[in-house]
Design brief:
Length: about 600
C-alpha cells in the first residue's frame, strides 16, 4: 500500500489534531453501537473530552479507568473538503494505524472496518463527502485482544461477588508491554486520479557496477483498453535522471550504470543511499524511493551486497511518556540520533510493525531492520487454530505490502517467543513462514524469535536465520554471571548441531534502575547491567567469526508494561531511560558498537 504523497496528480491533507473522544464505559461496552453514536455529533450523545491524534489515549488524562480501559473508544472530528476536489478524482481516507479493531463512518455512513493495529487501512470516501459544508468522521476503536487477535489475549471474568465487584474482569496478555490503544498514527485524506497507480514493487540486483531495477506497477480505476502508458525514470539523490524507460507494459527493467549501493551504517561510506523512481501512469505520478542492495543467507553468514554483515543492534518499542505508542516526530528523530550515538547498525521492530516514518528514517540512515509482525504471546493452542492462522497470514501480507520496497528491511520476523515447543507450533509456523516467503517478491530471509531451548524447539527448522532471546543470569540463575558462558555456548552448539544456520541473539538484557549503584555489582544496579552485557560479549566474540551474525541488546530504552510484581513502573532493561538519557551501560555498548563498526 503506497504511502500518501503530493505530486503533480495527487494532493493530501492530514487530519491530525485534537479530536472529540469518549470511551464507552457501559458494562457491555456496546452502548455506542446500540445508540448509534455515529449518526450525529458525538457531543450530542453525551459528554466528550479532547483527545490528541496521533496518540494513545491511555496516559492523556488522570483517569485510571481510561488508562486501563478495555473496549470501544469513540473518536470524532470535523473537516472540510474544497470544492475543487469534487470531480474527477478518488478521495481516500487513510489511517496509518489504530489499535486494534476499527470501524469508521463519514457523515454517518460506514466507510471501512479493519482488524489489527500497527498497519494502515484506507477506503475511497468520495461518495460520502460534502463539498459545500462540514464533514464528520467518526471512529470506534476497540483494544480488546482475544485468543485469535495478533497479539492474542483473553478477557477473564470473575463472578464470585464475595471477592470481586460486579462486572469485574481483566485482560490477560502474554506480552511484556502496555496495551496502548487509540489512533496511533496519522489520519489522511488524499486524492488520486480515477485511473491511478495502485501499487509499485521495486526489486533490485547488482551486476558488476550496474544496478538492475525491476519495477512493477499495478493500477486501478478505469484502466484504458490498451495497458495505458507507463513512464518510469530513476533519479539519484541530487535529482539527476540516471535511467528511464517508456513502455506500454506495467513492468520495466531499468539499468543504473555505476550504481551507488545501499549499505547499513559501518559497512561503507554510502550509508543509506537511495534513489527515487518516478512512475507516470496515464498522468498519475508517484515517486517511490528505493535502495540498490542484495541480501543473502549462507550456512554461517548474513550477506549484504555479498559482504558479511554483523548486526550490532538493539530491539526497540514504540513507547514514550504521555503519548504511549503515538507517532511523534521529535521522539523518533531523537531515537535515531541516539541509535547513531550508540553505533547501532540494526534494529528489530519488536513486537509489531513500526510507523512508516520510522522505517523511512531507517532507510535513509542505513539502519538495517528485522521487521517483526505483532505475533507476540502466541502461547496456547487457542492462538494457533485456523482462525488465528488466517489472520496471521493476512497481517503478514499487509506488512509485506507496506514495507516490501524498503532497503532497510533485511528480514521478516513472523513472531516473538511463541510456544515453539508445543505440538501445534510446527504446522502453524511452517504455514505462516511459507506464506511470508511467497508474499515477499524480494524473497528476503524469514525468521521467528525463539526463547525455547534447542532440545525442545520445533520451528527453527523452517527459518533462514536462528534468532534467540536469552536471559541467563537474569531470569535463570539470577545474579550468577558465571553461568552465562557455559549456558550460551551450549545453546549455540545445540542449535548448530541441529541446523547449519547463522544465529542472531535478538535479546539479552538486565533491568536497571538508573542511579542505583553497588560495587561489586548487584542485580538492578547500573554496574550489574554493564557486567551482564560484558559477560555475553565474551561469548559473542568467540562465535562472531564463526556462525554468530548479530547481537541485539534488550532494550534501547525503558518502556511501559502492565502492572506486575516483576515490573517497577515498566520494564527497565533500557540502555537509555524512557526519556532517552543514557545509563552507564549505554557507554559500554557505544564503545563496543563503534569499534565493531570500524572493524577493530
Ligand atoms: C522477552 C520478551 C520481551 C520482554 C523481555 C523481558 O523475552 O521478548 O518482550 O520485555 O523478555 O524483559 O522480560
Amino acid at each position: 500500500m503506497l504511502y500518501p504523497q503530493d505530486s503533480e496528480s495527487r494532493e493530501s491533507k492530514i487530519l491530525d489534531g485534537i479530536w472529540h473522544f469518549r470511551a464507552d464505559m457501559s458494562p457491555s461496552r456496546t452502548r455506542g453501537f446500540n445508540e448509534k453514536w455515529w449518526t450525529k455529533s458525538l457531543s450530542e450523545s453525551g459528554p466528550v473530552i479532547d483527545m490528541p491524534v496521533p496518540a494513545s489515549y491511555n496516559d492523556i488524562t488522570e483517569d485510571k479507568s481510561l488508562r486501563d480501559f478495555v473496549g470501544w473508544a469513540w473518536y470524532e472530528r470535523q473537516f472540510y473538503v474544497s470544492p475543487h476536489w469534487s470531480s474527477n478524482r478518488r478521495i481516500i481516507l487513510r489511517f496509518d494505524s489504530a489499535h486494534y479493531n476499527s470501524v469508521v463512518w463519514v457523515n454517518g455512513k460506514q466507510v471501512m472496518e479493519h482488524n489489527g493495529g500497527h498497519l494502515p487501512f484506507e477506503s475511497d470516501v468520495f461518495g460520502a463527502l460534502n463539498f459545500d459544508g462540514p464533514n464528520r468522521v467518526t471512529v470506534a476503536v476497540n483494544n480488546t485482544l482475544t485468543p485469535t487477535t495478533l497479539p492474542p489475549g483473553e478477557i477473564i471474568y470473575q463472578t464470585d461477588t464475595s471477592k470481586y465487584p460486579k462486572g469485574y474482569f481483566t485482560q490477560e496478555l502474554q506480552m511484556d508491554f502496555f496495551n496502548y490503544a487509540g489512533i496511533h498514527r496519522h489520519v489522511w485524506l488524499y486524492t488520486t486520479p480515477v485511473t491511478y497507480i495502485d501499487d509499485i514493487t521495486i526489486l533490485t540486483d547488482i551486476e558488476g557496477s550496474k544496478g538492475l531495477v525491476n519495477c512493477t506497477i499495478t493500477v486501478g480505476g478505469k484502466v484504458p483498453d490498451t495497458d495505458g502508458s507507463v513512464r518510469v525514470s530513476a533519479f539519484d539523490s541530487a535529482g539527476r535522471v540516471v535511467a528511464s524507460s517508456s513502455s506500454l507494459s506495467s513492468t520495466s527493467i531499468i539499468v543504473i550504470p555505476n550504481a551507488t549501493l545501499w549499505w547499513p551504517y559501518g559497512m561503507n561510506e554510502t550509508v543509506g543511499h537511495q534513489y527515487t523512481i518516478m512512475v507516470n501512469y496515464t498522468g498519475d505520478v508517484y515517486r517511490q524511493k528505493f535502495g540498490i542492495r542484495t541480501v543473502q543467507v549462507t550456512e554461517d553468514k548474513f550477506l549484504i551486497n555479498k559482504k558479511p554483515f554483523y548486526c550490532h543492534g538493539v530491539a526497540k518499542h514504540e513507547d514514550s511518556d504521555i503519548r504511549g505508542k503515538g507517532l511523534d516526530y521529535s521522539l523518533i528523530t531523537k531515537d535515531f540520533n541516539m541509535l547513531r550515538w550508540l553505533g547501532v547498525n540494526c534494529i528489530r521492530t519488536s513486537h509489531y510493525p513500526y510507523a512508516e516514518e520510522i522505517m523511512s528514517l531507517a532507510d535513509q540512515q542505513g539502519v538495517a531492520v528485522i521487521d517483526e509482525s505483532p505475533g507476540v504471546g502466541i502461547k496456547h493452542k487457542s492462538n494457533m487454530g485456523p482462525e488465528s492462522l488466517k489472520h496471521h497470514k493476512e497481517v503478514m501480507s499487509e506488512m509485506i505490502r507496506r514495507d516490501k520496497n524498503r532497503p532497510s528491511v533485511i528480514m521478516w520476523s513472523v513472531a516473538n517467543e511463541p510456544a515453539s515447543d508445543s505440538s501445534f507450533a510446527a504446522s502453524y509456523f511452517k504455514s505462516v513462514i511459507e506464506h511470508t516467503r511467497s508474499e515477499d517478491p524480494a524473497k528476503r530471509p524469514v525468521t521467528f524469535v525463539s526463547d525455547v531451548v534447542f532440545e525442545k524447539d520445533t520451528v527453527v527448522q523452517f527459518v533462514d536465520v536462528v534468532c534467540m532471546n536469552r536471559y541467563y543470569a537474569w531470569y535463570h540463575d539470577p545474579g550468577h554471571l558465571e553461568v552465562v558462558h557455559l549456558q550460551l555456548q551450549r545453546e549455540f552448539e545445540g542449535f548448530r548441531s541441529k541446523q547449519k544456520k547463522p544465529i542472531i541473539v535478538t535479546e539479552y538484557g538486565a533491568d536497571t534502575v538508573p542511579g542505583l549503584h553497588r560495587e561489586p555489582s548487584f542485580m538492578f544496579t547500573e554496574e550489574y547491567q554493564v557486567d551482564f552485557l560484558q559477560e555475553y560479549h565474551k561469548v559473542f566474540d568467540d562465535a562472531r567469526q564463526k556462525f554468530l551474525v548479530g547481537e541485539m541488546v534488550w532494550n534501547f530504552a525503558d518502556f511501559m508494561t502492565v502492572q506486575g510484581t516483576k515490573r517497577v513502573v515498566g520494564n527497565k532493561k533500557g540502555l537509555l531511560t524512557r526519556q532517552r538519557q543514557p545509563k552507564r551501560a549505554a557507554f559500554t555498548i557505544r564503545d563496543r558498537y563503534h569499534a565493531l563498526a570500524t572493524g577493530q
